[in-house]
Design goal:
alpha+beta, 15 strands, about 30% helix
Length: about 350
């Protein structure tokens, strides 16, 4: 039963604990707003404008959520894009105290070009439980579903990991598909994966969506590997704590200056970070709304009568509930109540 208690977990003398309000159901309003705002820029070739629209709409809605939130992961630092800043306080200031990771528009280039799989994403966990990567902007990542979670390794050769995954699934390595970003820095790994006989599905952007694809059943994707953003790594870990599976990450400095900064800040660059290290909380919430159509979610669609539809994924780790939320929005009314910020 959904209640009105202000804390994330409330005591009940009859059962010990009972679920209180599901913050993910409130956060989906935030990702819907960001998606609706960004969708107005789909195909216009304007990455910054799309990102700024998503950020503004997300911040507007976050301030209405009953919580005392601190942004631990704010997307945008690596390319000086508009963002919700690390350390920014959001929510109305009431309990619970939480850490927040955001990517108001995962896939700015996808949106600008009208390409598939752009998302608006947010995750939330108890205060002090989200990994702060400090100066490390990129992370090597490997993700897979519950069936193969114990087989994953970043310290062993990729072909060996693929061989074990294929054996566990009862298939030949040629039937294993690895999804990864199409980047020149991946050239050596591409050769390793192909030497194992496995297939590669390249994506241009959007490795949160790809990580969810890798841990979900029936997608035709078995693993995610690649060097991508640390914000996306923490967001992916939050989602995987809800869905099941595993993500392993290892910080990947881009140059000597970044390496020295990370070491000086006390980071162990050899440490392999799993989902419980990236998001240590036990009550994790995740919401994502499609901006453009993709394998994971349908994007914003305009109905021609002043309305638009959205499709979202809403998850909570403690209950294990995963919801797909389809919504119909009256755009003129939204513009009226938000001062034209989105709709």
């Amino acid at each position: 039963m959904e209640g009105e208690a202000p804390s994330v977990i409330s005591h009940d003398v009859r059962t010990g604990t009972r679920p209180d309000r599901n913050l993910a159901l409130e956060l989906v309003r935030v990702t819907e707003a960001a998606a609706l705002a960004a969708a107005r820029w789909v195909g216009h070739g304007e990455k910054e404008e799309a990102d700024q629209a998503a950020v503004d709409a997300m911040r507007l809605m976050l301030d209405t959520v009953p919580m005392d939130g601190v942004v631990v992961i704010g997307e945008g630092e690596k390319d000086e894009a508009p963002m919700l800043h690390n350390g920014e306080r959001i929510g109305d200031g009431s309990p619970p105290e939480v850490d927040i990771a955001v990517d108001p528009l995962e896939g700015t280039r996808l949106t600008a070009r009208g390409m598939p799989s752009a998302l608006a994403v947010i995750a939330l966990a108890e205060r002090g439980t989200m990994f702060d990567p400090g100066p490390s902007v990129y992370m090597e990542k490997l993700a897979g579903g519950p069936e193969v979670a114990d087989l994953l390794s970043l310290t062993e050769p990729l072909p060996e990991v693929i061989r074990r995954v294929a054996e566990r699934k009862g298939v030949d390595a040629a039937e294993i598909t690895v999804i990864m970003l199409d980047r020149s820095r991946h050239a050596d790994a591409v050769a390793e994966i192909r030497s194992s006989g496995a297939r590669i599905r390249f994506i241009t952007d959007g490795d949160v969506s790809a990580a969810l694809f890798a841990v979900s059943q029936g997608t035709g994707v078995d693993l995610l590997w690649g060097i991508g953003g640390t914000p996306e790594g923490v967001l992916s870990a939050a989602a995987i704590k809800c869905l099941g599976g595993q993500l392993l990450g290892r910080l990947w400095p881009r140059d000597d200056d970044e390496r020295q900064a990370a070491v000086a800040a006390g980071y162990d660059l050899d440490e392999v970070l799993d989902v419980d290290r990236l998001v240590a909380g036990t009550d994790v919430f995740f919401a994502a709304t499609g901006v453009t159509d993709g394998d994971l979610l349908q994007g914003v669609r305009y109905l021609g009568d002043g309305h638009a539809t959205t499709e979202s994924l809403v998850m909570r780790s403690r209950s294990g509930t995963v919801r797909t939320v389809q919504a119909r929005h009256d755009r003129p009314k939204l513009r009226e109540v938000t001062g034209g910020r989105y709709g």
